[in-house]
Amino acid sequence: MRKLLLLSIITVVGLVFIARLFYLQVYNEDPYSLLDDNAIRKVRDYPKRGYIYDRNGKLLVANQPSYDVMFIPREVKSLDTLEFCNLLKITKEDFINFYNKAYRYSPRLPSVFIPQLSRMEYAVLQEKIRKYEGFYIQKRSLRDYQTTIGANVLGDIGEVNNYIIENDPYYKSGDLIGKQGVELSYEEELRGVKGIKFIQKDRFNRDIGAYKDGIYDTLPEPGKDITITIDSKLQEYGELLMRHKHGGIIAIEPSSGEILAMVSAPSYNPNLLVGRQRSRNFTKLYNDTIAKPLFDRSLKAQYPPGSPFKVISALIGLQEKVVTTQDQFSCRHGYYLGSRRLTGCHSHVSPLSMNQGIAQSCNAYFVNVYRRIIDKYDKPAEGMDVWSNHVKSFGLGDYLGYDLKIGNKGRVPDGAFYDKWYGKNRWSSTYNISNSIGQGEVETTPIQLANMVAAISNRGFYYTPHIIKNIEGAEIDEKYTTPNYTTIDKEHFEPVVQGMFDVYNGGTAYSLRVPGIDICGKTGTAENFMRIDGKRTQLTDHSIFVAFAPKDNPKIAIAVFVENGYWGSRFAGRIASLMIEKYIRGEITMTAMENWILTHSLENEYAKPYSGKEFGINRQSALQVIEKITRDTIVNPESTRTSSFNLQ
Amino acid sequence: MQRDFRGLNFDWITIALFLLLVGFGWLNIMSASHTGEIVSYFDMNHPYGKQSVFIIFTFVLIILILALDAKFYERFTSVIYFLSIVSLLGLFLFGKNVNGALGWYGIGGMTLQPSEFAKFATSLAVAKYISDLQTNMKTFKDQVKAAGIIVLPAIIIVLQNDTGSALVYVAFFFVFYREGLQQIYLVVAVFLVLLAVLALKFNVVVAVLVAGLLIFGHHFFGQKKRPQIIQPIAILLVCMAVSFGIKYFYNNILQFHQKDRISLWLRLENDPQKLHELKQTILYNLHESEKAISSGGLTGKGFMQGTRTTGKFVPEQHTDYIFSTVGEEWGFLGSALVVLLFVALLLRILYLAELQKSQFSRVYGYCVASILFFHFLINIGMVMGLIPTIGIPLPFFSYGGSALWAFTILLFIFVKLDSNRINEW
Prior knowledge:
The complex is a heterodimer of chains A (648) and B (425).
Chain A: H1 4-27, E1 40-45, E2 52-53, E3 59-71, H2 81-88, H3 92-105, E4 111-117, H4 119-128, E5 135-145, H5 151-154, E6 157-159, H6 162-167, E7 176-178, H7 181-185, H8 187-191, E8 195-201, E9 207-210, E10 226-228, H9 232-241, E11 247-253, E12 258-265, H10 278-287, H11 310-319, E13 334-337, E14 340-344, H12 354-360, H13 363-375, H14 380-392, H15 415-422, H16 446-457, E15 461-463, E16 468-471, E17 483-485, H17 493-504, E18 520-532, E19 535-549, E20 556-562, H18 569-585, H19 591-598, E21 600-601, H20 603-611, E22 624-625, H21 631-635
Parallel strand pairs in A: 2-10
Antiparallel strand pairs in A: 1-8, 2-3, 3-4, 3-5, 6-7, 8-9, 10-16, 11-12, 11-20, 13-14, 15-17, 18-19, 19-20, 21-22
Helix pairs in contact in A: 9-18, 11-13, 12-17, 14-15
Chain B: H1 12-33, H2 47-67, H3 70-75, H4 77-94, E1 96-98, E2 101-107, E3 110-112, H5 114-131, H6 140-159, H7 163-167, H8 172-178, H9 183-201, H10 204-221, H11 230-253, H12 256-265, H13 272-280, H14 282-296, H15 307-310, H16 322-355, H17 359-383, H18 401-419
Helix pairs in contact in B: 1-2, 1-16, 2-18, 4-5, 5-6, 5-17, 5-18, 8-17, 9-10, 9-11, 10-11, 14-16, 16-17, 17-18
GO molecular function (chain A): serine-type D-Ala-D-Ala carboxypeptidase activity
Protein name (chain A): Penicillin-binding protein 2
InterPro entries (chain A): Beta-lactam/transpept, Beta-lactam/transpept-like, PBP_dimer, PBP_dimer_sf, PCN-bd_Tpept, Penicillin-binding_protein_2
C-alpha cells in the first residue's frame, strides 16, 4: 500500500490542476476580444467630420485643427522653464501647477498641458517643441462655422457623456458627438467611421510597437458631406428681422417639404460653442431662463395658432358639406348664443360669406361653421372626432416626423378629450367654440403651422418637412419624398385659397402687399397668459402670420410667430411679407416695411413680467423704437445676441 | 520485457517525455523573453539564446552520465554528497547575492546555483543510506540519521535565505514513507498542516477545538476496546502548544515577505491599505499570471502571439512564471497537455522505480519522482493561485542553466541506473 501514496497524490494533483485550468480558461471565460485586452492600446484614428452646405452650395460648417500641448510627466527633462512659459503665455506658477496635477494623475500617462492652441500659437511652438522632452502636440479637429447664423439648425458637437458611452460601444471617452441640430440628426453620416490601431503595451503602459505588425488596424472612413435645405441668405435675413423679438419663423418649399429657413429668436452665434470657451458659453446660454436662447422656438414652442386656424375650419366645413361658399352669417361684434356673447369680433361688414369671413377674419362666421360641423352628428363626441381627424390630417396634433430631433406634438382635442373633461355626452359644441378660431384647446408649433400652410398651398397634400437635401452619394429617406394627403378634397381648397389671397387684397393684411407677388396669407392674434407670482396674468397677444406665395405653383410657405407682438399683421405679417419677397425676388423693395421691423423692439414687452410692477398689455403698451439694426451687428460674433446678454 | 543488451537499453519513454518538456519549455522561454525580431536562436543577449546553449550543453551532460558505469554513482555517492555540501558552504565565502538570496557562484559571465545540484547529491546519499543492509527505516535511530542527510543541506540553504529551495527537501518524506516510515508520521504531518491553517485562518481556540473533536472522536469511536482519557488529553495539550507555536512562528519568526504570501493565500489581510500594498507587489504577479492564463481560453492566442506575454505583464515570466506563457499562448489544450506530460513522466519514473531489483535504484527513483513532483506541485500551483507564492522553477521548463542541468543529471542518473537493472542481482 505504501507504493500507492505518491502515485495517488500525483494523479490527484494532476486532475486538480486540469480542473483549475478548465475553470480559469474555459468555464470562467468571456470570449476573448482584442478590444477588451488591456495589454493592447487602442489608438483611434479620427476621420474628418463631414462638411455642411446650404441648398445653394454655400459652405456653412467646416473643420479647424486645434492643437493640444500634451506631456508625459516623468519623461520631462530639465528645460528652460522661462522660455517655455513665455512661448505658451503662462506663468511659472501655472507651469508648476499643471505639472504637479498631471503627475498626481499619472506620471506615465499623457496629460493635456495646454488645450486647444490657436493656429498662430501652434505655428510658433511647432518649431521649438522638440527642445522640450516629454512634451508633444496632439492634433484634434473642431468645428469651424463659416457663418454666424443658424445655430439652432446647425447645432454643435461636444464630448460624449457617460450615458452614451455605456450604451453605444462606438463612442469612447473624449469623443465628440453631435449635440443639437443637424449635427445630432446626421451624426452617423457626418462622423464617418473611426480607424483603429492596436499597439502592444508593456506592463508600465509604454508602447512597444504595433500589435502583429498592424494586421488588425483599420483606416478611418471620412465623414460624408451633407447639403441641407436651408437657404442661408433667407435664414440670415430671418434672423436679422427677428432681432429684439422672441419667436420663430419656419419657411417651407411646398413642392418638396424642404425647410428653407428655420429661425428661432433670440439665437446665438454658433461659434460660441466651439473650443476652449464652449462649456463656459454653454452654461451662460443655458442659464438664461428668460430669453432661453437654447430653446428652439421654431420647433418646440407650442402656442395657440389663433386665426390662421380658421382656414382649417372653413375647409372642414366644406368637406363635411355643412356650409357652402355662398352661405352668409351675420356678426354683431361677436357670436351670440341667445343673449350671451361667446366670443367677440372686430368691426367689418356683416353678414359675410366664406371669402370675406377669411379675409376679414370674422370670429362669428367660423363659430357658426364649427357648430354646424359638430352638430351634424348625433353626439358631440362623434362630431368632435370627425373634426379632429380632419385637423390631424394636416400634420397637427402629433410629431411631424421631420429629421430634427426636437419638437412637440401640439394639441388637437377629440371627443374623448372633452368626454373626460366634462363627462360623457355632458357637453355640446358651444362648450368649445374657441377651437374654431385657433384658441381654446388647440395648440401648434410654428413648424406644424408652416406645414399646414404648405398643405393648403398644395391644395391637399404635404411632404414631411425635412432639413436634409443631399447626403454625399446617398438618397434621402423615402419618407420625405412621399406626399401625405389630407382628408379634404382638392376642389374645396380653391375658395379657401382665394379667401387667403383676399386677406392681402382688402383683408386684414392689405397693408402688407408686395407688388408683383401674389401672396396668400392669414393673420392671427392669440391671447396668452403667464403665471406671475402664482396669478394667471394675461400678456400682450402673440402676433401670428401664415402665408404662401405665389398663389399658383407656390414656392414658399411660411409661418411666423412673434411672442407678444400684439396683432397678426403688426410684426409677424410684416416679417412674413419681407421673407417672401426676399426669397422670391432675391432683394427687398419694401424698404419702409423693412425699416419699421428693424427699428422696433419688443424687449420692453418681454421685460414686463419680470419687472415686478403692474403693467398694461395690448392697447396700453407702447412700441419701443430702437436704432436700426444692421447686418454688421449680426456678422460680428461678439454682438449676435441681444444687448442684455454679454457673452465672451 | 525485452530489452536490447548491447548498451542502448534505456527507457525511451522517459527520454521522450524529457525531450518534449525541454523543447516545449524552450519555445515558451523564447516567447516570453524575445523583444522584437529573433535574429538568432543563439543570441546570447536574450534568455532564449542562452537557454539554447544550456540545452546543447545538457546533451553533452546526458552522454557523459549515460557513458559512465552504473555502479559509479553508488560508489561515489559519499564523495558527491560531500562535494555538494562543501559547495553550499563555500557560498558563505565566495557566493553572489541575487534577489536577497546568497545562492550563486559567479564564474566568468555565468552563474551556478549549487543548491540545485545538491538535490541529486542528497538523493544519492539518501538512496545509499537506506539501501545499506544495516539500515532499518522502521527504527527511530535510522530515521533520525536519514533525516540528518536531508536536513544538513536544507539548513545551509535556509541560512542562505533561499527558503523556497530548502522546502523542496520536504519531498523526501515520500521516499521515507515508501521505505518504512510509520503511518503515524503521515497522520501527524497532515494534522500539523490542518492545525496550522486553522490556527492562522481562524484562531488557536478553533484549531484546538477541531483537533479535540478529531482526537476524541478517534479515541471513543475507534476500534479500541478500552477508551483512554489521559492520552487524548495529552495529545490535545500538545496540539495547543503547537498551535501557539505556529502562531508565534508566523508572527515573530517568519520574514515579512513570507508572512505576506501566507496571509494572501489564506486571505487573512483585512486592512485595505495593506491589501492595496500587497496588490502592487505579490498579488500583482499572481493576478497578472492568472489573467494571462485565463485570457488563453480553450486554444490560446498562438505561439508568440500572447498579448500579455509580449507586453511583459508577468514579471519573471521566463523563469518561475513560465507556465503562464503556456496558458496564454497555448490555451487550455496546451497547458493541460503540459500537466499530463508531467504526470506521465512522474508515473513512469515511479513505475520504473518499483521495477528495480536493487534497493539503491528504487530509492533513488523515488527521490527523483518526489523532487520533480514537489517542483511541479508548487510551481504550477503557485502560478494558478492555488498555493502561496514560493519561487522555485518548473523542471525542464523554466529558464536557467543550473536548474536545467541539475534536473537533467537527477533524471538521467536514474535512466542509467534503470538501464542496468537487468544486470543487477
